[in-house]
């Protein structure tokens, strides 16, 4: 709703303008009428209009004086001045104050409509931009809710929705996750266009987890909205991909200050309730999946027993049973990792030359890289097989070191291509988990972080060599088809946006 104040000292003209404004759109709310500048200032302080339509020549305080006072208030407002044919000098002075829209008396409906259409479009666009920034601030830091009243006063309830592609990521900026950027902000905006009432504001925001996206629905008081139905429609579209999608929906939020707390709660719920290998919708009020016992199951007991007896055949059979059982029970990712770590811990404890510290993160990486039970089975089979050979390496130290060097060379030559950890592991015939671990052992950085760092280093060199090169072109050269993703990754690595980095370069030259 756009709020309008009309300032005119002659009642018949004021009422005529009021009628014409109301004819323009039902989304216009006339929040005040004033007969001079003093009355207008009082109304402005109380109602904070978006548009002020004002005559110039009025008693007590004229339109120019009023505009000057309003500009001192530092509020977001647009002006439309109304003048007669003999008042052009006043109009010219108003233009100097920054007023760009004026109408001649008598006010013509078509001319007023043209100006109102332009101004309302600008106001909606600016409000959405400011809402987006404020929402981001709300999610990332505590800000007094009164700051948001101007932009959110038309809404009385909010809903947060958290989207996750593939497995839950245990740490932020995880460049190795196979489903980073599985959906963009533009994608989500496009998906919601046909299913939301025009008055409902929706904005998706990237999080520090590259395979996650959070969105907020802002709903006006008298607008009907079914959050579960809406989320189900979004889920149906996203779930067309060949990996699991998890979507979490919050309860109704009525206080802006609760948004940050709710976002944190959804993140914890995602970690706790994400199903491994299956897509799902999770409601915040839904009772979380829970397992009351940490007792070793019969299958797990047989796995450990067969390992201690060095009975590889039985171990492989029991591993298959474990995978089938986990799938049938729809284990959460947390539960699955917990059980696998327990099995691994007992196996390591029973081996004199192995230490659990070396393998603590292996299970999390294996689960992350394999987002269905079939892939997981294959990779766990390979992983646990190495225990029977009393080694965790797939070749000698010298051989794996050579492979790491080859991978580094490959990344330097092919950084502009779309490369994933699975692509590299397939190319060099190395398990992705083992590859990542070995590369980090020798290079002190994971392979995907190394790829990212290489791309950003090349991007910085390109900016230094040719400051006029467009960011979209730079992004494509270094391997990012989406300029937004490039900017996001650039800032995560350098703590500067690409634009800020270029500005610093120009300042250093000057």
Describe this structure in words.
It is a single chain. The protein is of the alpha/beta class. The strands form two sheets. A five-stranded parallel β-sheet has the order 2-1-3-4-5, sandwiched between helices. A five-stranded mixed β-sheet has the order 7-8-6-9-10, sandwiched between helices. Helices cover 53% and strands 12% of the residues. α1 packs across α5, α2 runs parallel beside α3 and α11 runs antiparallel to α14. It has 21 helices and ten strands.
Number of strands: 10
Q: Which residue ranges are poorly predicted, with pLDDT under 50 across at least 5 consecutive positions?
A: 287-293, 391-396
Strand portion, in percent?
5-15%
Tell me the distance between the termini.
47 Å
Please work out how many helical segments DSSP would assign. Answer: 21
* Coarse morphology: elongated
Biggest pleated-sheet summary: 5 strands, parallel
| Oligomeric grouping of the chains | single chain
The largest beta-sheet arranges its strands as: 2-1-3-4-5
Work out the radius of gyration.
31 Å
**Estimated structural class:** alpha/beta
Fraction in helix: 40-55%
Average pLDDT, to the nearest integer?
84
Brief rundown of the structure:
The chain has 510 residues and is an alpha/beta fold. Helices cover 53% and strands 12% of the residues.
Set out the fold topology.
Elements (H helix, E strand, L loop, with lengths): L1 E6 L3 H14 L3 E7 L2 H11 L3 E5 L7 H10 L5 E6 L4 H9 L4 E4 L4 H32 L8 H4 L2 E11 L19 H9 L7 E6 L5 E9 L6 H12 L6 E5 L9 H15 L6 E4 L14 H11 L3 H17 L4 H17 L12 H8 L3 H16 L8 H18 L6 H7 L4 H12 L3 H19 L5 H7 L5 H12 L3 H12 L1
Parallel strand pairs: 1-2, 1-3, 3-4, 4-5, 9-10
Antiparallel strand pairs: 6-8, 6-9, 7-8
Helix pairs in contact: 1-5, 2-3, 10-11, 10-12, 11-14, 13-17, 15-18
């Amino acid at each position: 709703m756009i709020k309008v104040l009309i300032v005119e000292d002659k009642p018949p003209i004021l009422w005529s303008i009021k009628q014409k404004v109301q004819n323009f759109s039902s989304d216009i709310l006339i929040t005040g009428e004033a007969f001079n500048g003093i009355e207008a200032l009082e109304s402005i302080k109380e109602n904070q209009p978006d548009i002020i339509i004002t005559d110039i020549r009025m008693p007590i305080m004229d339109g120019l004086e009023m505009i000057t006072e309003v500009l001192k208030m530092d509020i977001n407002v647009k002006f439309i001045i109304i003048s007669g044919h003999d008042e052009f000098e006043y109009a010219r002075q108003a233009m100097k104050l920054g007023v760009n829209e004026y109408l001649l008396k008598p006010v013509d409906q078509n001319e007023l409509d043209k100006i109102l259409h332009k101004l309302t479009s600008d106001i909606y666009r600016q409000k959405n931009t400011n809402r987006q920034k404020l929402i981001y601030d709300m999610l990332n830091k505590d800000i007094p809710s009164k700051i948001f009243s101007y932009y959110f006063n038309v809404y009385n309830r909010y809903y947060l929705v958290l989207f996750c592609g593939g497995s839950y990521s245990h740490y932020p900026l995880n460049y190795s996750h196979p489903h980073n950027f599985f959906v963009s902000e533009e994608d989500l905006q496009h998906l919601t266009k046909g299913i939301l009432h025009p008055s409902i504001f929706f904005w998706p925001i990237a999080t520090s987890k590259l395979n996650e996206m959070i969105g907020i629905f802002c709903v006006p008081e008298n607008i009907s909205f079914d959050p579960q139905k809406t989320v189900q429609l979004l889920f149906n579209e996203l779930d067309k991909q060949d990996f699991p999608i998890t979507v979490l929906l919050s309860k109704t939020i009525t206080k802006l200050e609760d948004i940050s707390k709710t976002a944190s709660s959804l993140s914890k719920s995602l970690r706790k309730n994400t199903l491994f290998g299956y897509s799902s919708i999770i409601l915040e009020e839904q009772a979380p999946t829970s397992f009351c016992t940490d007792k070793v199951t019969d299958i797990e007991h047989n796995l450990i027993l067969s390992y201690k007896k060095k009975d590889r055949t039985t171990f492989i059979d029991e591993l298959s049973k474990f995978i089938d059982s986990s799938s049938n029970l729809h284990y959460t990712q947390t539960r699955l990792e917990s059980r696998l770590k327990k099995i691994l811990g007992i196996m390591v404890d029973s081996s004199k030359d192995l230490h659990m510290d070396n393998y603590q993160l292996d299970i999390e990486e294996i689960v992350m890289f394999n987002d269905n039970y079939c892939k997981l089975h294959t990779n766990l089979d390979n992983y646990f097989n190495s225990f029977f050979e009393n080694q965790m390496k797939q070749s000698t130290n010298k051989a794996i070191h050579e492979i790491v060097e080859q991978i580094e060379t490959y990344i330097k030559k092919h950084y502009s291509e779309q490369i994933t950890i699975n692509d590299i592991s397939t190319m060099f015939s190395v398990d992705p988990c083992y590859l990542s671990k070995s590369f980090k052992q020798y290079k002190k950085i994971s392979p995907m972080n190394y790829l990212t760092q290489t791309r950003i280093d090349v991007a910085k060199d390109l900016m230094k060599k040719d400051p006029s090169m467009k960011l979209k072109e730079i992004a494509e050269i270094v391997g990012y088809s989406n300029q937004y993703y490039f900017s996001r990754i650039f800032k995560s690595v350098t703590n500067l946006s690409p634009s800020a980095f270029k500005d610093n370069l120009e300042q250093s030259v000057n």
